[in-house]
From TrEMBL, chain A:
Belongs to the KdpA family. This is Potassium-transporting ATPase potassium-binding subunit. The keyword Membrane applies. It is a multi-pass membrane protein. Part of the high-affinity ATP-driven potassium transport (or Kdp) system, which catalyzes the hydrolysis of ATP coupled with the electrogenic transport of potassium into the cytoplasm. This subunit binds the extracellular potassium ions and delivers the ions to the membrane domain of KdpB through an intramembrane tunnel. Keywords: Cell membrane, Ion transport, Membrane, Potassium, Potassium transport, Transmembrane, Transmembrane helix, Transport. NCBIfam families: kdpA (TIGR00680). The gene is kdpA. The chain crosses the membrane at residues 55-76, 133-151, 172-193, 248-266, 278-296, 367-386, 406-426, 473-496, 517-537. It comes from the Bacteria. The keyword Cell membrane applies. Pfam families: KdpA. It is found in: Cell membrane. The system is composed of three essential subunits: KdpA, KdpB and KdpC.
Automatic annotation (TrEMBL), chain B:
Residues 118-219 form the P-type ATPase A domain. PANTHER family: POTASSIUM-TRANSPORTING ATPASE ATP-BINDING SUBUNIT. ATP binds at residues 355, 359, 389-396, 407. The system is composed of three essential subunits: KdpA, KdpB and KdpC. This is Potassium-transporting ATPase ATP-binding subunit. It comes from the Bacteria. Gene3D superfamilies: Calcium-transporting ATPase, cytoplasmic domain N, Calcium-transporting ATPase, cytoplasmic transduction domain A, HAD superfamily/HAD-like. It is found in: Cell membrane. It comes from Actinomycetospora chibensis. Belongs to the cation transport ATPase (P-type) (TC 3.A.3) family. Type IA subfamily. Mg(2+) binds at residues 532, 536. Part of the high-affinity ATP-driven potassium transport (or Kdp) system, which catalyzes the hydrolysis of ATP coupled with the electrogenic transport of potassium into the cytoplasm. This subunit is responsible for energy coupling to the transport system and for the release of the potassium ions to the cytoplasm. The gene is kdpB.
Length: 545, 697
């Protein structure tokens, strides 16, 4: 009962935030006026906020910004010894620093390090937290550019990447994250610059419990669908996520922007039905997968009448299932329970959320553009069935538009399948796995699904410190992030150049329940026909046994 | 062969007429025998160079080679069965294309026969006529064609008038009149002059004439992929890559799980998953779409134009001939003051009985309907002497027993009556009525009996029956209709209201038309129009779909991207339907093809891994006998479904004008849900047979 109440409260909170936040974000990206602090930033980085960029320039700006971020973050970790609040944690080992830099810039936040022993507060606050903000802002900028492609006509200008990134931070992420951090402190999340507190353990031996400036990073970790914990145990750690209240609030934070972006989309294309129909797809798939995970965990008892292995007693089955479903349905990857210990179908459900290509409701910005790409593919096929060459929101989907969409759709399955196939073919992989048989395969499949989708959650159980995993997962994160971004921006450029086709009753109407069914069907069918063979050998084989 | 007759078999000619007159989108009967006839062509298409044009089928072709090699190296009933059926899959795909192409062959042969051995009488530089082969003619040459001779090439009449038999290209046996100057000056090579003598200036290079283009089109020889077809091919190729990756990476996962798969099984899985159904039928759908247009006697210069026709959202229709009958018809009688209506009716009837013009017949029909007078002439009336219409008298009528009955232009009738017969009141009355009729957009015909003015017959444009329903259908399809007319706005609006057209362009000049098209296009609409005159050429070129009438000028035909051989402007509506139908067929078969994959997974996946994961038997919902029979059944189903869908690909998915939502719901249900369900039943049924084969079951 308490479980249903949590879901109910969560939905009410999201519904309440949807309209004001969605409308606000639409204003942020359409308004001419700059804030004072923004003008200061533009002056410092010498950007004319009123000059708009072509798709190619916009893309270069986004890529350059991200790669500069990788270099800076890498250097920051390597120079940790010189920074304050490092507590003698020294320079981060090169391979780990490299992997972490990619991981945080790509909004994946996969962690192959133990923060308590390797990352000081300075790197956390000036490195990782900064990327938590800007990588989320980049995702939103790309999504907004795609929307601009739909609403603009006969122009080669998409907007200004620098303005979009800055405004995303100053007007959306920073204000909400600041308020949320205070709220988290109120629920009991710690906020301290001390390295830890010395305690006397129950066994009488002294030990140190690590402390960190947690609340400030925790809020953006969820809000920006990042997921990199300041403690190794992530949101299962009582300092990051002390009680059911903080748990529910964190789930709300990680869903709120992707959900509200559907309203931003509807507002910007001047048809709220378009946004609502996509929201319906997200909601139905999110709800369906929640039912799967929840049921699977509640009905496959390991102890306490349900599968409580790897879960925190303070969250229980509903709090864990809700978190797991939301963290994999967005590209967050924070965890409050051990997904490896989930039942076959429960863990498989979390994996499937990612294999849907992260759009239920997906990451900040990435979720919206991913579902728009699927909508384009769905419209391309269905549009033919009403006897017209396909068009979506008044833009024709021709050869080049379909090519861009196809690149986005192809990237993730290619990375996941090739990575998993390659890894599993190596004899050394068997040693890295905790489990053998189908569950072992699940561990590997989950790792590549998480990296390629920039989710960052770990199934756990797979030791990925080897050079092979660090490299291939790093490549999967990079390509999984930037190939789609390049294709989406190219698509936005193509769309912006077109004249808008006038809608008529002969046009396939999008923004209808039938359209939602179509998009949801495409999401499920594409994931099913791509991954059924792999899933049959992992969660299906395990779960049916 | 220099004499030209309708070389088509009667059945085909009949079909031409049926589709020309009928509303239904040309079905084009498909005979199973065509499959057998096309088999040799299909086998010739096994050439890998041909297969490369179609990425999906090329993968199947490669898979067939691989499986054949492994069947030779490691023979088994299973391996050979799979190899055989994979080759069948490729052959069936070729067959679909071959059948589609073959259907155009008969038409092409008939056309080709008109081209050979034609002798041209060219007027040399010294004005002397010399005999040269038609193939030697160049653009700008002038040739003389006399009665009984075949016109040697496409051109324009520069001198003379003639009746021409165009049945070779239109299938229409009634001769047409062609004359120099004006909008009926163009002639087509291969047609025959029946009377008189004309001088034609050649406008097409040898090998690029109308007939040449038509042959190339119906044979599908120069077929280029249309933009949408290319976009679809990209999507299908991407899916093929995904499945290739899924199957290739399955092997290490299978190895890890403890059971490496044989090459034969992996290829079988791959072929079943990639969208072979649509891949096999895609080009047949395109060829058949063009073929359906040709059956309707419309010739498109490219497949791109056919596709654009499906997208059209604004139709510009000429009023005359399309919305109204070109001829004016009697709609009312207006007697002068003091004249009985019955008297006017009787006189108008007698004056028109012998008049075979549509106007004359319409008067007889009107009085028969409204006054109960007989439509046939009595024996007495048949003795009347007919006075035909002439440009000088501007009247027609009869002389019966010394009584002269006349009908004609009001001023002409008044002049004929003379001042002594027509009183000032009569004259004023006739003129007042006539002015009122003219203001309504009608044509007044004054009627006089001997020396007495009786009244006026009102002729007006009559909207074709059923046209309002047609426009309503177009509206549900999201297509806006605009009537183009030279009439004044008042008349135009009256006709527009009656016909249910959405918009009107009255007192239209060619410039107005062009401006309207540009305006519509700027607001993101695709425009289709028909035209025949040289001054229509700019608008025809600007329109997204410009259908030129075959009776029109060479300039119009050059500017448009389709030519209607029947010169029937109403056909524009049918052209739109053919375009839509082609796109729907493509989308429906793609959806069907992808939805099929689900059932194939349920057949093949448990079969592959039953040995290591017996629990996967839960997925074997079809209760297929053995792993081998399951995989073979899926492959056989995959091949047979192509053959089963060839008729649908050629005929096109049934299209009824409806809103997009209803069309989508219906097609999603039939081809989406049907695509999920049908293969479960099909594979189950095939397995019942296959399990009886020793070594499989």
């Amino acid at each position: 009962m308490a479980g249903f109440a949590q879901v109910g409260v969560l939905l009410v909170l999201l519904a309440a935030a949807w309209r004001p936040l969605g409308d606000w974000m639409a204003r942020v990206y359409t308004e001419e006026r700059d804030w004072g602090v923004e003008r200061l930033v533009y002056r410092v980085v010498r950007v004319d906020p009123r000059s708009e960029q072509r798709a190619s320039t916009y893309t270069v700006a986004i890529l350059a910004f991200s790669f500069a971020g990788i270099v800076l973050l890498y250097l920051l970790q390597r120079l940790q010894g010189l920074l304050p609040w490092s507590f003698d944690r020294g320079p981060v080992e090169a391979g780990v620093a490299f992997n972490t830099a990619i991981s945080f810039v790509t909004n994946t936040n996969w962690q192959s390090y133990v923060p308590e022993t390797s990352m000081g507060h300075a790197v956390q606050m000036t490195g990782l937290t900064v990327q938590n903000f800007v990588s989320a802002a980049v995702g939103m900028a790309v999504a907004v550019s795609l929307i601009r492609g739909f609403i603009r006509s006969r122009t080669d200008r998409l907007g200004n990447a620098w303005v979009d990134i800055v405004r995303g931070c100053t007007r959306i992420l920073l204000p909400i994250a600041a308020v949320a951090a205070v709220a988290l402190v109120a629920t009991g999340v710690v906020m301290s610059l001390r390295s830890g507190v010395d305690v006397l353990g129950p066994d009488g031996r002294p030990s140190t419990i690590a402390l960190a400036p947690t609340a400030s990073q925790e809020s953006i970790k969820e809000l920006g669908t990042n997921g990199g914990g300041i403690f190794n145990a992530n949101s299962a750690h009582p300092f990051e996520n002390p009680n059911p209240l903080s748990n529910l609030f964190e789930i709300f934070l990680l869903l709120v922007i992707p959900v509200a972006l559907t309203r931003t989309f509807g507002r910007m294309v001047s048809s709220m039905r378009q946004g609502v129909s996509l929201l319906a797809v997200m909601a139905v798939l999110w709800g369906g997968m929640l039912a799967v995970i929840w049921t699977a965990e509640a009905t496959s008892p390991s102890f306490a009448g349900a599968n409580m292995e790897g879960k925190e007693v303070r969250f229980g089955i509903p709090g864990s299932a809700l978190f797991a479903n939301s963290t994999t349905g967005t590209s967050t990857g924070a965890v409050n329970s051990l997904h490896d210990s989930f039942s076959a179908f429960g863990g498989g459900g979390a994996m499937l959320n990612m294999l849907f290509s992260e759009m239920t409701p997906g990451g900040v910005g990435t979720g919206l553009y991913s579902i728009l790409i699927v909508a384009i593919v769905a419209v391309f096929l269905a549009g033919l069935m009403v006897g017209r060459t396909p068009e979506y929101l008044g833009k024709r989907l021709g050869r080049r538009e379909v090519t861009c969409a196809v690149v986005v759709v192809l990237t993730m399955p290619a990375l996941v399948l090739l990575g998993t196939g390659l890894a599993i073919a190596l004899p050394s992989t068997a040693d890295a796995m905790t489990n053998s048989g189908p569950h072992g395969l699940s561990e590997v499949l989950y790792a590549y699904a998480s990296a390629a989708n920039n989710n960052g959650s770990a199934f756990g159980g797979l030791t990925v410190t080897s050079g092979f995993f660090q490299t291939t997962l790093g490549v999967a994160m990079l390509l999984g992030r930037f190939l789609p971004i390049v294709a989406v921006l190219a698509l936005a450029g193509l769309l912006a150049r077109q004249t808008r086709v006038a809608p008529s009753t002969g046009t396939l109407s999008t923004g209808t329940p039938l359209f939602s069914v179509l998009v949801a069907g495409t999401v499920v069918l594409v994931a099913a026909i791509t991954f059924l063979p792999a899933l049959a050998l992992s969660p299906l084989a395990e779960g049916l046994a | 062969m220099t004499t030209v007759h309708d070389a088509r078999p009667p059945a085909e000619a009949e079909q031409l007429h049926a589709t020309r007159t009928g509303r239904a989108v040309g079905a084009g009967a498909f005979r199973p025998r065509q499959l057998l006839e096309s088999l040799p062509t299909a086998l010739r298409k096994l050439d890998p160079r041909h297969q490369l044009r179609n990425p999906v089928m090329f993968v199947v072709w490669g898979g067939s080679v691989v499986v054949t090699v492994s069947a030779i190296l490691d023979p088994s009933v299973f391996a050979w069965s799979i190899a055989l059926w994979l080759w069948f899959t490729v052959v069936f795909a070729n067959l679909a294309e071959a059948v589609a192409e073959g259907r155009g062959q008969a038409q092409a042969d008939a056309l080709r026969s008109t081209r050979t051995d034609t002798v041209a009488h060219r007027i040399g530089p010294d004005e002397l006529v010399e005999e040269v082969p038609a193939t030697d003619l160049r653009v700008g040459d002038r040739v003389v064609v006399e009665a009984g001779q075949v016109i040697p090439g496409d051109g324009e009449i520069v001198e003379g008038i003639a009746t021409v038999d165009e049945s070779a290209i239109t299938g229409e046996s009634a001769p047409v009149v062609r004359e120099s100057g004006g909008d009926f000056s163009s002639v087509t090579g291969g047609t025959t002059v029946l009377s008189d003598r004309i001088v034609v200036r050649i406008t097409a290079k040898p090998g690029e004439s109308f007939v040449d283009r038509m042959i190339a089109l119906v044979e599908g020889a120069q077929r280029q992929k249309t933009p949408n077809e290319i976009a679809l091919t990209i999507l299908l190729s991407a899916l093929t890559i995904v499945f290739l990756l899924a199957v290739v990476t399955l092997q290490p996962m299978a190895g890890y799980s403890g059971q490496l798969q044989s090459l034969v099984v992996l290829v079988a899985l791959l072929v079943c998953l990639i969208p072979t159904t649509i891949g096999a039928l895609l080009s047949a759908i395109g060829i058949a779409g063009m073929d359906r247009l040709v059956q309707r006697n419309v010739l498109a210069t490219s497949g791109r134009a056919v596709e654009a026709a499906g997208d059209v959202s604004t139709l510009l229709l000429d009023k005359t001939g399309t919305i109204t009958y070109g001829n004016r018809r009697a709609t009312a009688l207006h007697p002068l003051a003091g004249v009985r209506g019955a008297d006017l009716a009787a006189a108008a009837r007698r004056a028109s009985l012998a008049d075979s013009t549509p106007e004359g017949r319409s008067i007889v029909e009107l009085v028969a309907r409204n006054h109960g007078l007989p439509a046939e002439a009595s024996a007495y009336e048949a003795t009347a002497e007919f006075v035909p219409f002439s440009a000088t008298t501007r009247m027609s009528g009869v002389n019966l027993d010394g009584r002269a009955l006349r009908k004609g232009a009001t001023s002409a009738v008044i002049a004929w009556l003379g001042p002594e017969s027509a009183t000032d009141t009569d004259r004023a009355g006739l003129e007042a009525i006539s002015t009122a009729v003219a203001e309504r957009g009608g044509t007044p015909l004054a009627v006089a009996d001997g020396s007495r003015a009786l009244g006026v017959v009102e002729l007006s444009d009559v909207v074709k029956p059923g046209i309002a329903e047609r426009f309503a259908e177009l509206r549900t399809m999201g297509i806006k209709t605009v009537m183009i007319t030279g009439d004044n706005p008042v008349t135009a609006r009256a006709i527009a209201a009656e016909s249910g057209v959405d918009d009107v362009l009255a007192e239209a000049t060619p410039e107005d038309k062009l401006a309207l098209i540009r305006e519509e296009q700027a607001s993101g609409r695709l425009v289709a129009m028909t035209g025949d005159g040289t001054n229509d050429a700019p608008a025809l070129a600007q329109a997204d779909v410009g259908v030129a009438m075959n009776s029109g000028t060479a300039a119009a035909k050059e500017a448009g991207n389709m030519v209607d051989l029947d010169s029937d402007p109403t056909k524009l509506i049918g052209v739109v339907e053919v375009g839509k139908q082609m796109l729907i067929t493509r989308g429906a078969l793609t959806t069907f093809s992808l939805a099929n994959d689900l059932a194939k997974y349920f057949a093949i996946l448990p079969a592959m891994f039953l040995a290591i994961f017996p629990q996967l038997a839960a997925l074997n919902v079809m209760q297929l006998a053995t792993p081998q029979s399951a995989i073979l059944s899926a492959v056989i189903f995959n091949a047979l479904v192509i053959v089963a869908l060839i008729p649908l690909a050629l005929r096109g998915v049934r299209f009824r004008p409806a809103s997009s939502d209803r069309l989508l719901r219906r097609n999603l249900l039939v081809y989406g849900l049907g695509g999920v369900v049908v293969p479960f039943l099909g594979i189950f049924a095939i397995d019942l047979v296959v399990r009886l084969v020793p070594g499989i079951g």
